[in-house]
What we know:
Elements: E1 12-17, H1 21-34, E2 39-43, E3 46-50, E4 61-71, E5 74-83, H2 85-114, H3 120-146, H4 148-162
Antiparallel strand pairs: 1-5, 2-3, 3-4, 4-5
Helix pairs in contact: 2-3
Amino acid sequence: MPATNDIVLRPRFKIELNKSNQSILKDFEALKSSQSDFIVTRLDNHVFIKFPKEKQHFWSPQLHLEIDEIDSNSSLLHGLFGPNPTVWTMFIFFHFLVAGLFIASGIWAYTNSSLDKSYAIQVSLMFLMVLIWVVLYFAGSIGKASSKNEMRALHNFMNDVIKIEKAPKF
């Protein structure tokens, strides 16, 4: 599961398995009540693995697996690590807000420039938006870095269920 690109905030991986997708999904389904370290939720061919509420913090990751059938004896597992969907939505909202304010400041600066008025405030706002965007990026990177051990725990749990031995590299 190499994540060679450091810009990736939500690492993804893909594994081809020599088991049918239904047998793998049943393995995950069986663990819903037999263990308490993780919360396992299944919806069609999607499996969500996350930590119980008492073990979660703001940046706690969850693992989303999609297990697609290739043929009757093999399947393709797509995995995606990410924060709680509410946290991710808020994070993306802030990015769009910053981008919108950057564009609005640029239009305002262009208008003032066309009218031969001062546009220093608008350009300053644009630089501030770039600075805020960089802060948001590093906040996300710090959140990802602080969750690496939890991501490994989720990945190891997944490996135990599907019975493969690959060390995570994220």
